[in-house]
Amino acid sequence: MKSFFPLRRSEGATLVFLIAFAAFAFIPEWRTIEVGGMAVFGWLIAALMLISPALALVTILRRDGTGGTAAGARGRESGAGGEEGGGDA
């Protein structure tokens, strides 16, 4: 069965990494070990909450090939100004 949204190799690798990291973070032993006054489980979940959106953003930006420029910035370069042709004025 062909998928509706094709998954590239980098996106698949990102997905596998995040699932593996989540599985690693939920190991029961991490709940009893403390580092800096907080359980290792808490540190790992906090890292997962920071890493997953950042990694997803990097993966999406690399797929689009924008190189860090937003889609709106590219639209304005071609003459599609925000104030022309629309507004409540």
Report a brief summary of the structure:
The chain has 89 residues and is mostly helical. The protein contains three helices and two strands, in the order αββαα. Strands 1-2 form a two-stranded antiparallel ribbon.
Q: Determine the fraction of residues in helical runs and give it as a percent range.
A: 55-70%
Order of helices and strands: HEEHH
Terminus-to-terminus distance: 51 Å
Q: Describe the strand arrangement of the main beta sheet, using strand numbers.
A: 1-2
Q: What overall geometry do the principal axes of the alpha carbons give?
A: elongated
Mean pLDDT: 77
Could you please describe the fold and organization of this structure?
With 89 residues, this protein is mainly alpha-helical. It has a domain at 1-11 and 21-61. It has 3 helices and 2 strands. It has helices spanning 9-25, 40-64, 71-77; strands at 34-35, 38-39. The protein has a two-stranded antiparallel sheet with strand order 1-2. A hairpin with a 2-residue loop joins strand 1 and strand 2 (38-39). Helix 1 (9-25) packs antiparallel against helix 2. The longest helix is centred in the middle third of the chain and has 25 residues, at 40-64. It is elongated and about 45 Å long. The N and C termini lie far apart (51 Å). The model has no long low-confidence stretch (mean pLDDT 77).
